[in-house]
Predict the structure.
Amino acid sequence: MTTNTILLLILSLLIAGGLSFFQYLYKVKNKSKVGLFLTFLRFSSVFLILLLLINPIITTSKLEIVKTPLPIVVDNSSSISFLNTKEKALELSQKLASNNAIQDKFEVQSYFFDSDFRQSDSLTFDGTQTNLDLVAKNLKSIYKNAFYPTVIITDGNQTSGNDYVYSFNENNKVYPLVLGDTTKVLDLKINQLNVNRYAFLKNKFPVEVFLQYSGNKSITANFSITQGNEVLSKETVSFSASKKTATVNVLLPANKVGLQVYKAKIDSKESEKNTFNNIKNFAVEVIDQKTTVAIISATNHPDIAVFKRAIESNLQHKVILVKPNEIKSLQDYNVLILYQPTSVFKSVFEANKKANLNTFIITGTSTDFTFLNQQQNNFVFKMSGQEEDYLARFESQFNLFAVDNLGFENFPPLENSFGTITTNGEVNVLLSAKIRNIDAKAPLLSFTENQGRRTAYLFGENSWKWSLQSHIDNQSFEKYDVFINKIIQYLASNNAKKALVVNHESFYNSGEAIEINAQYFNKNYDFDEKANLTIAVTNVKTKQTKNFDLLKGNNTYKVNLDGLLAGSYNFSVKELNSKTSYSSHFEILDFDIEKQFVNPDVQKLKQLASQTKGKAFYPNQIDALIKTLLDNEEYKAVQKDVVTKSPLIDWKWLLVLIAVFLSTEWFVRKYNGML
């Protein structure tokens, strides 16, 4: 308390005493008990009012004992129940948390985790994902700059999140309690299955399957892929103590349009403890996307025949060869390939301004670049009459669509007019040009998009040589044909703007986050933040319908449909104000990732303990873990002097006391007829 405050308090006492004396005692002949009582009341109320006006700061000091925090984190995922360690997990966590010595030394905090991280209240062991990385992030956030140990009761089998071994603070020891039977048993498992989500009708799509074996004796297993009751592929795979893995590559036919569900399965004559990981369902959406491509050229060139053959290697593509002056309408085509355009192409460009078709422009030594400058604004050409050979360089940062490097750097050069090509706007370059290994600082194959209209540019003729070189390198035209068809597929996609745009997957695995996003745009194609979007989800088998509202986020509306059972669902998203709607379907595949394990991941848990200078323990070593925690002298309680400063005006009871004094004074004066 400062000197000024003390002086003000003394002054307050004098003022309060003076006022009360002057009113009740000054020149009073008979000093009664009532007068003295009223003097006390007046003195108290005036002094307290002045005290509140001065508002001194009251400082209090209190000693506190701060214990080291001990978070006990329990795995709440369904794999704990599946591995028959549910009761053991409960027993271990209770024994640790209720130990008197542990409670005396540590501030025990109980948590549990699965796909989320929460304070422990009731363990259900029904979590659909295991995310140990999330545990590390939350503990760092809760115990910032603290030095503490952590006990994690888990099987260590993580199904989502980053690698947890290096996620925890290496200065804070982690003590994993390993749940599950560590005895290695014979087990066959489909470890991973890779397949494209989409395939085109009448084509074949690849399926890559990684198989894993746990055991010591040599066995023969049968691997098959079925659709319904039909076996599409079947083969025998051998494993042994030295051969633990195998890769199976299969080409499956896409004969039906729509979402096709398949089952991959591996089994043998040997008995297995866990057969859930022997089966993996997957789905592919087969698209009937017939695309008609017009190759428009005023000259004959080998490139045209090669493009036609490569494009038609995809049965969903049809190529029509036509001259510029023969074009009457563009409505029969989906994509235009303009081969070496000149002024005779003027009618084609004029017609396409209305048709708005995506185009693939290929230039060469016969191209009229002055005309091309007039018809497009993506590039500015300043070309001479001299011819030049351009080599290709693959740009690995290209990300419009997935494409492999066919060895373009070793392909023969393309021929084009010599000059400078300047980009005007955003251009995505897949291949850049070189002149005798010198960077020409110009694109060779590039893509642009303006207001939903896509255009590809290839600056050079004689790409038929690329096709032959690819055949020499691979004994097949397949890779080159796939490369050309990816360009056509990109150009054939419909990118028209819609008022209601809904993004969703065609299928989900059980336990995954089932999230559907939507955007609604007004007539100016601005995102409408006042839209009212709902979704109705119907189970195809049971016909049961559930309705949800889509919640607005950052320039999107979304809904989370977690909790739906495996099966096929139809859904409809509606904007209630404009009645705009979008309908589609998705499939939830029956796949429980938490049932794919037969043993705990002891190696990773030991890695985690080693990384943080802790130690891994087994359930029968719980007493040793408790002793380790108690014997560690690094974790000591800290005595803190907690100083609290509070202004007197915050003491609400003073106001009550002033009101009581003033009220009592008024009542006594009234009672004694002094008013």
Notes: Residues 327 and 505 are 40 Å apart (CA to CA). DSSP finds 14 helices and 33 strands in the chain. The first strand starts at residue 57 and ends at 66. The chain has a mean pLDDT of 88.
